[in-house]
Amino acid sequence: MSKHISKVLRGALVALTAAGVVGGATVAPAGAATQGKGSHAATQAALDGLVAAGMPGVAAGTWTPQGTWSGSAGYADTDTKRKRTADDHFRAGSITKSFVATVLLQLEAEGKLSIDDSVEKWLPGVVKGNGYDANKITIRQLLNHTSGVHDMVYTPEWNEQMNGQGFFEHRYDIKTPEQIVAMGVKYGPDFEPGKGWRYSNTNFVLGGMIIEKVTGKPYAREVERRVVKPLGLKETTFPGTDPKLPAPHPVGYSKLYVPDPGPQIYDATEYRPSWSGATGEVVSTSGDLNRFYSALLQGKLLPKKQLDKMLTTVETGEHYTYGLGIISRKLSCGVQVYGHDGVVWGSLSGAAGTRDGKHMLTFNINGDWLDQSPPFENMFEGEFCGSAAKTGKAVAPQAVLGPVNH
């Protein structure tokens, strides 16, 4: 996930632009409506606000004790004017990290590893040279981004091959996890293990490799066996090298993460997600992701000991704290929500729920830029607080992929 939008998401430079993708609509200010019990007026207003901010389309689904609700604004396809729906499949980006962390914590609960094991124990020789000592980096530090391992997204190689026109030249390439990790560790650590915090997609590629080393199976197959099938997540897939999305799905509109982009918007719907793998491969729907996070927060996937570890967060210097593959936000009304965000080419997603797992929200934007970031946070504020954020502070989603500088 990347850091800010005027500043760049911590794995993606999301540039200002906006006007002209969806024109002509007049909408109420995001969060203008007051949301009563069982109402989603402020959530719908936040959806409308994202389109007013220049996004092509957005769809959301919620899960509460009163039942489910879905809403949308804008278009899945701006040429045909096909609307967004709650049934849309989308690339959920870094939401993959919550699945990966869940499996690693399940393996710990089964006594097959400890999250305080060193990376060197499970992946000897994979993280070495350039100032790295994998004996001092733990699995826990990978999962909460305190490892110091450099993010492969912030490298000249990534920027050249996967941003701008390089995306069209390389989007069908197949990359192995080892190749992706090597791209990151070619550059020295950002800090000593445990002595700082910086979001790094390389951490979770390593996490996926550890799952395979422990189980003998690819991380995605273990996620499917342990999480997807038991929960009945029938619309959730890990496509590997398949560049296509299941129907129905929106067009993924992208500015390709170039600095100071012009008005041109590109169709980035198709690419081989082996580029992201265990850090951002998952394809899902709002209904499946609400079901996943609800089950996770209710303790249906992890014993209490491991769930407590997952939800123990560290400070990030941002508007959120970070646990083990999970983001915690404290909203303006005092409500604390847990989940994850994700950005990949042509897709920006957010999912979160209350600690009891009874109130969930997932939404997806089929565009990867914003002219300002508060409209993104207004989705959480609208659903869980019933109004737009009271603060004028610019905050942004975390993205899984993007350019080299933040």
Automatic annotation (TrEMBL):
Protein known as: Peptidase
UniProt entry keywords in alphabetical sequence: Carboxypeptidase, Hydrolase, Protease, Signal
EC class (word): hydrolase
EC id: 3.4.16.4
Signal sequence, renumbered to the chain: 1-27
Species annotation: Streptomyces eurocidicus
The keyword Cell cycle is assigned to this record: no
GO function terms (MF aspect): serine-type D-Ala-D-Ala carboxypeptidase activity
Domain Beta-lactamase-related: 46-347
Keyword set includes Signal: yes
Transmembrane regions: none
Top-level taxonomic group: Bacteria
